[in-house]
UniProtKB/TrEMBL annotation:
A biological-process GO annotation: protein import into nucleus
Positions of the NTF2 domain: 10-124
Entry annotated with the keyword Amino-acid biosynthesis: no
Principal subcellular localisation of the protein: cytoplasm
One Pfam family recorded for the sequence: NTF2
GO cellular component: cytoplasm; nuclear envelope
Name of the protein: Nuclear transport factor 2
Purpose: Has a role in nuclear-cytoplasmic transport of proteins and mRNAs.
Keywords in alphabetical order: Cytoplasm, Nucleus, Protein transport, Transport
Gene source species: Parnassius apollo (Apollo butterfly)
Length: 129
């Protein structure tokens, strides 16, 4: 399979759609459709999860009610299997907590005329020394 020439638009469009769903508690459960039942992986703050069920259990266990997000940059690269590697840098604030910078990396894997999230890594940029 060849490199996808639309990788940048795909990356930016995906990030916008993903965070629109994630940031709305009523729509967050629909993120399950973006992950593969068996082969998707997520690392969330150092905790590794595999499969859409485990990933959604983690996302649904998050207790905040309100999230404010600022996406600073979305950098994408094409992959040789037609997929897209996406790195997001941003800042978020949940409920009344202090805002924190975060990094999130996605690997989108092609499936038919669409993509699913094969890998998802999220980390707040906290420096505990």
């Amino acid at each position: 399979m060849a490199l996808n020439p639309q990788y940048d638009a795909i990356g930016k469009g995906f990030v916008q759609q993903y965070y629109t769903l994630f940031d709305d508690p009523a729509q967050r459960p629909t993120l399950a459709n973006m992950y593969n039942v068996e082969t998707s992986f997520m690392t969330f703050e150092g905790v590794q999860l595999q499969g859409a069920v485990k990933i959604m259990e983690k996302l649904n266990s998050l207790t905040f009610q309100k999230i404010t997000r600022l996406v600073t940059s979305v950098d994408s690269q094409p992959m040789f299997d037609g997929g897209v590697l996406i790195n997001v840098l941003g800042r978020l604030q949940t409920d009344e907590d202090q805002p924190h910078a975060y990094f999130q990396t996605f690997v989108l894997k092609p499936i038919g005329n669409s993509f699913y999230v094969e890998h998802d890594m999220f980390r707040l940029a906290l420096h505990d020394v």
